[in-house]
Write a structure and sequence with these properties.
There is one protein chain. With 464 residues, the chain is an alpha+beta fold. It folds into 3 domains: 130 residues, no CATH class; 190 residues, no CATH class; 50 residues, no CATH class. Helices cover 42% and strands 19% of the residues. The strands form 6 sheets. Strands 6, 7, 8, 9, 10 and 11 form a 6-stranded antiparallel β-sheet that branches. Strands 5-4-14 form a 3-stranded antiparallel β-sheet. Helix 5 runs antiparallel to helix 7, helix 5 crosses helix 12 and helix 14 packs across helix 15. The longest helix has 33 residues. The chain is flat. It starts with 5 loop residues before the first helix and ends in a 6-residue tail after the last helix.
């Protein structure tokens, strides 16, 4: 079975002489399926399927129907394990500032980069991209040159992205469609940008279809304009969109454990319903004559007495036992499996205590496996991002710097600080100062600490 790429599909449609480029763009936007991505975000926002729970009953004819009253009164408690697991991974990878190092220190590339980009702000954006990729499977970053000639970037979420990859090189972008909602003269529309390796074309989509965006005198523009002479130019690196994948298959984390969350939610909801339904005792009354249930309830409520007639009379108190232990076992099993199969740290356990470093690494083992998949693809995306930034620096300063940077994501985990501090002390005269400081539990900013230490040593000043 042959596989047709988006690029081949576009070319085939255009060659039919029936489709225009705008028709093809319209089709691609209409065909984009964001169903599962939106479902994952629903779960991330604690709006799981349990929120749509319906209670069914059987009528006198044996037909199934939705009991509206019971449905409205039913418990629909949603438990946000998906957000916990996603945030665990994202914070594990991006809560600490990533580190940039350069094999070619003489080029001062890192200093030049810091003048162009606030790396702390960029690190925060990485968390946003990580959350999107974890929910949808992939996310995108768009580097661009603004009207003042400055380097800038914007996150483009999966639900606003249509990447079009090369037939010959599966990882190479031939084009990219970015689309997002907005308003034109008060009317709700979708703004479209079609980027290739040379230009960007601006369109607008409404009920009549796709047409050139009237906000632009010429809807076809170069990637950017050079600030010094206002001439149009394009990126040497091609289509300026960078993919950040969640994993090899570009799947959402939710697929790992959605069924378990649904099972847990239903178990808890049914238990809560049982508690509400059977929290009061039932009365089996014999010899009450023609008294209705309502009359019997009123007598009990008002006088605590019921008058009975006849020879066979009496009241039996019936209390229904809810299978608490069985429900508890089921919910705890589902909860434990959510963390295990979801590759997370089980936050319901209270035995972290003063675990050694080895024990803590074991606790984080599954999270580290899952996070490492994302880390590999995010490192690839970050390298390409810095390729674009260095291309901008080279243009701006008439340089020819190569990208010799190494990006290190500094994973965050609970640590045994006293154990790490002792290792750091024992490593003096064995390892260099920078390595020791980076691995010390308080070494969150090695450059600042080393600079402060140098000043302290020069002034012969220390804490007594």
């Amino acid at each position: 079975m042959s596989i047709i790429t988006d690029t081949e599909l576009i070319k085939a449609r255009l060659n039919d002489n029936i489709y225009t480029k705008m028709d093809v763009i319209d089709d691609l936007v209409n065909e984009k399926d964001n169903t599962y991505a939106l479902q994952a975000y629903r779960y991330y926002d604690n709006a799981a399927d349990i929120k749509n729970r319906k209670i069914y009953d059987i009528d006198e004819n044996g037909d199934k129907f939705i009991d509206i009253t019971a449905t409205n009164e039913a418990s629909k408690s949603s438990h946000n394990y998906h957000q916990i697991l996603v945030d665990q991974k994202v914070q594990y990878l991006f809560a600490n500032q990533f580190t940039l190092s350069d094999d070619d220190r003489a080029s001062n590339t890192i200093d030049k980069i810091k003048k162009e980009v606030n790396l702390k702000d960029f690190n925060v954006l990485l968390s946003e991209i990580g959350i999107d990729a974890s929910n949808t499977g992939e996310s995108y970053l768009h580097p661009y040159i603004d009207a003042k000639g400055n380097f800038n970037y914007i996150h483009v979420p999966y639900t606003q992205s249509i990447p079009i990859y090369s037939t010959q090189e599966p990882d190479k972008l031939d084009a990219f469609i970015r689309y997002y909602p907005g308003y034109d003269n008060g009317d709700s529309v979708i703004f479209l940008e079609f980027w290739d390796d040379k230009n960007v074309e601006y369109y607008i989509k409404n009920d009549q279809g796709v047409s050139p965006n009237p906000q632009y005198e010429n809807h076809i523009q170069p990637h950017f304009y050079n600030a010094f002479d206002n001439t149009g130019d394009s990126w040497d690196l091609g289509v300026p969109f960078i993919q950040f994948k969640n994993n090899y298959r570009k799947t959402s984390d939710l697929k790992l454990y959605k069924d378990l969350i649904d099972s847990y939610n239903l178990t808890i909801a049914e238990f809560e319903d049982n508690v509400k339904e059977f929290q009061e005792v039932l009365y089996a009354v014999k010899g009450a004559g023609n008294a209705t249930p309502y009359q019997l309830r009123s007598q009990i409520k008002k006088s605590k007495i019921i008058k009975l007639k006849g020879d066979e009379t009496g009241i039996d108190v019936v209390q229904i036992d809810i299978p608490v232990e069985a429900r508890k076992f089921s919910s705890q099993t589902s909860q434990s499996n959510i963390f295990k199969l979801g590759g997370g740290v089980d936050v319901t356990k209270e035995d972290f205590g003063n675990n050694s470093g080895v024990a803590l690494k074991f606790i984080y083992y599954l999270l580290d496996i899952k996070a490492s998949k994302m880390e590999a693809y995010f490192n690839k995306g970050l390298n390409l991002f810095f390729d674009f930034l260095i291309e901008h620096i080279n243009r701006k300063e008439s340089l020819a710097i190569d990208n010799t940077l190494t990006v290190t994501l500094n994973k965050r985990m609970i640590s045994n600080d006293s154990e790490l501090a002792k290792i750091a002390v024992d490593s003096v005269d064995i390892l260099d100062k920078e390595t020791i400081i980076k691995n010390h539990p308080w070494g969150d900013d090695p450059e600042r600490i080393m600079a402060a230490k140098e000043i302290e040593d020069n002034n012969s000043f220390g804490l007594e």
